[in-house]
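Limitations

Structures in this collection are predictions, not experimental determinations, and the ligand pose is part of the prediction. Treat each record accordingly. The example that follows, with magnesium ion as the small molecule, is included so readers can see exactly what is and is not provided: the inputs are given verbatim, and the output is the predicted complex.
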Amino acid sequence: MIQLKNVYKKWGDLSVLENISLDIVQGEIFCLVGMSGSGKSVTTKLILGLEEPDSGEIWIDGENIHYFSPKTWREVLRKFGVVFQNAALFSSLNIYENIGIRLLEEKKETPRKIKEKVEETLIKVGLSPDIMTKFPDELSGGMRKRVGIARAIIHKPRYLIYDEPTTGLDPINANLIDGLIQTLDREEKHTTSIVITHDFHTVEKLNGNVVMLHNHRIYFTGKTVAFLRSEDELIRNFLSR
Ligand SMILES: Nc1ncnc2c1ncn2[C@@H]1O[C@H](COP(=O)(O)OP(=O)(O)OP(=O)(O)O)[C@@H](O)[C@H]1O
Ligand SMILES: [Mg+2]
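Predicted complex:
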């Protein structure tokens, strides 16, 4: 479980997050929504230790991350898989190297074993292992998203963070990606998925929990059904887009 307790974050005069408290419960899907600039990406950066809160605490699996040593961080980050916005693949590396990068760097397994894992993972995300020798530029946007997901899941993380997984995709591919997120979440009972999205179709399809940020604070938190039924004007606006 990931817990944010009264978290505040600002840069100079710009207050981004104020008094954010949130329990991200094991095994569930959380959609993080809110206007551009509302602090969604910052929230995930705080969780990953890439930024520090000004005050408040963040706990991962019962431990306050403030006290993590670099060694502990390395272990903790192994529990995470992150799918960056626009897939963020390395254009000079082929698909095998892109997906296997973490395992190749760790050097804990033989290249042969890593290749097997890359193959398995490609199949899991609905791609053919034949594309391993291709480069990101040779793939379609939808395929690149899948490669980004493959890279995030190859080490079987407990926490999966997706930043705008369907942005820039056509409706059919967006729908397929939502389906994939759902399948991956269900496959492993303990997986917790945090999905940052502007796409209300994604929220609807994933049908989990919704956390909406607005004016530096948590504006809504609850189940998707309640979110979709809400009569609140701001939420209706989000849904009618
Ligand atoms: N390192 C930083 N230094 C200064 N300001 C920052 C920094 N990182 C983020 N911000 C500011 O914090 C605010 C929230 O940014 P964040 O990236 O979390 O927005 P977001 O909700 O993810 O938006 P989007 O939907 O556009 O991705 C923005 O105003 C941004 O300019
Ligand atoms: Mg963002």
